[in-house]
Design a protein that fits this description.
It contains 23 helices and 5 strands. Helix 4 runs antiparallel to helix 7. It has 2 domains: 234 residues, no CATH class; 197 residues, Serine Threonine Protein Phosphatase 5, Tetratricopeptide repeat (Alpha Horseshoe), CATH 1.25.40. By secondary structure, it is mainly α. The longest helix has 18 residues. A 5-stranded mixed beta sheet has the order 1-2-3-5-4. The chain is globular and about 70 Å long. Bound molecules: zinc ion (ZN). The site of zinc ion has 6 residues, from helix 3 and helix 8.
Length: 464
């Protein structure tokens, strides 16, 4: 699991320019993302949405919230994930959010977004998440300046009729996906009574998705008439849900995890939570011992090798970490995050690399990660470092230019157009004209050229 400061690569907005101190933090975790995608995929398909077109983002925040932004991005706060007790409850939340997407409830806001600057919008998202992260439980008014109104109108607050229609759509998706709406009802019951609290004491989810008796009644009626009333998701989803919660607690609230999952609790999820909590509280040896027990029990589980590798990597045992990342990747080759972590570990090894074989292996896995997830800035940064090393070993300046090109991609993915354009221009000078990377550098240069109202082709000649 990795904590990533907000870069919003997929929104291609300008994180650096948001200028507030409380950047929100996103959580990237192969296992949890894997679970959320597999739970959500049948719901998206029921809504005639290609699951690949939706990006799920996990915001590190104890606030209970979930929302949709820029059309195809669903944000889930860790506070919400931790509040759900079952995969059906989480499926209810996903179905409701998907109801907003399918209902086009964001078209209006997309129009508004066109009128607002990218910075203002990002400022809004950041401030919302930062407010949540700071535990204030409300919008961080102080850091939002002009953003507040956009947040309240476009992003977060739907009126009650829109909420009811998202519920109705969500319930029909759940029906089609063969999932009971019981979980949706249970989740609403958890939040019941919040409506009567003063606004500043309400859970964010209730503020952004006003909950009413009518909504709860509608879901109850649907459930009563449903043939899926008592349907349960397959056990594997319960297992994944339990491990997600164990992992989040161990990672985010290790002290609480140690209390909740007692020493003698034999359940796998309990030992998983404790292993992570021990790692997070500076007890790597004990953590690895517990993780070894997990691996023994499930020798084909890539995420246990990943945990062991991460503990070793963070404690300077890079070469041991490499071996475990290798195993994790062999078990789950199509995870961009695992490929990236493996490539990164290979880069960080201090062991001799005479013929450069290790750098080549690092490049292979970083390129594979990049193929699986093209706009992850960190992968580009590691690629830049790997190509830089390759240039040193081979004394071939083309690798230097490729390193510069990778930095251009990193900047572009972070929305830093100016730096991206400059780096791309510099990279082009060192790459063979017309070669694949030269062409991609040219694309960056052209797409990041300052827009002066003319079409971009006209700028081809306008450089210098
Ligand atoms: Zn809603």
């Amino acid at each position: 699991m990795a904590l990533i400061l907000a870069q919003m690569p997929l929104l291609a907005l300008h994180a650096q320019e948001s200028g507030n101190g409380g950047q929100p933090v996103f959580i990237r975790d192969a296992e949890i993302e894997n679970y959320l995608h597999s739970l959500a995929a049948p719901i998206y398909r029921a809504a005639d949405i290609d699951p690949k077109s939706i990006t799920i983002l996990i915001v590190k925040s104890s606030t209970v919230n979930a929302f949709v932004a820029e059309g195809m991005n669903e944000f889930f706060y860790t506070g919400l994930l931790q509040l759900t007790d079952s995969p059906e409850q989480l499926a209810g939340v996903i179905a409701h959010e998907t109801g907003h997407i399918a209902g086009g409830h964001l078209i209006r806001s997309e129009e508004e977004m066109k009128n607002a600057s990218a910075e203002a919008i990002l400022g809004t998202i950041l401030a919302v998440a930062a407010g949540a992260a700071s535990g204030s439980g409300g919008l961080a008014a102080g850091s939002m300046a002009g953003g507040t109104q956009i947040a309240e109108r476009s992003f977060l607050s739907f009126d009650r009729s829109v909420e009811a229609s998202a519920d109705a759509a969500g319930m029909s998706f759940l029906d089609r996906a063969g999932i009971s709406v019981r979980g949706m009802l249970e989740f609403f019951h958890k939040l019941e009574g919040q409506e009567d609290l003063p606004k500043d004491q309400q859970e964010e989810y209730v503020r952004t998705h006003p909950l009413t008796r009518d909504r709860i009644d509608a879901v109850q009626q649907h459930l009563n008439a449903s043939p899926l009333k008592n349907a349960k998701l397959p056990d594997k989803f319960y297992v994944m849900h339990e491990r997600m919660k164990a992992k989040l607690l161990g990672y985010l609230q290790p002290e609480t995890a140690m209390l909740r999952y007692a020493d003698d609790d034999p359940r796998l999820s309990a030992r998983y939570a404790r292993a992570i909590a021990l790692y997070r509280t500076g007890k790597p040896d004990h953590a690895i011992k517990l993780t070894d027990g997990l691996i023994k029990q499930e020798p084909d589980n890539p995420f246990f090798y990943e945990l062991k590798a991460q503990i070793q990597f963070d404690n300077g045992r890079v070469d041991e970490a490499i071996e475990n990342y290798k195993k994790a990747n062999a078990l789950l080759p199509d995870s961009a995050l695992l490929q990236q972590a493996y490539g990164h570990a290979l880069l960080e090894s201090k062991a001799p690399d005479k013929d450069g074989a290790r750098i080549d292996l690092a490049l292979q896995h970083l390129l594979e990660s990049n193929r699986l997830e093209g706009r992850e800035p960190l992968t580009w940064r590691f690629l830049a470092s790997a190509w830089g090393r390759k240039a040193e070993i081979t004394q071939d300046t083309r690798y230097e230019a490729m390193a510069t090109y990778a930095l251009a991609e990193e900047s572009a993915a972070q929305g830093n157009d100016k730096a991206a354009g400059q780096l791309a221009e510099r990279a082009m000078k060192g790459l063979p004209k017309g070669s694949p990377y030269w062409l991609r550098a040219q694309d960056i240069k052209l797409s990041t050229a300052p827009d002066e109202g003319g079409d971009k082709k006209g700028k081809k000649k306008g450089g210098d």
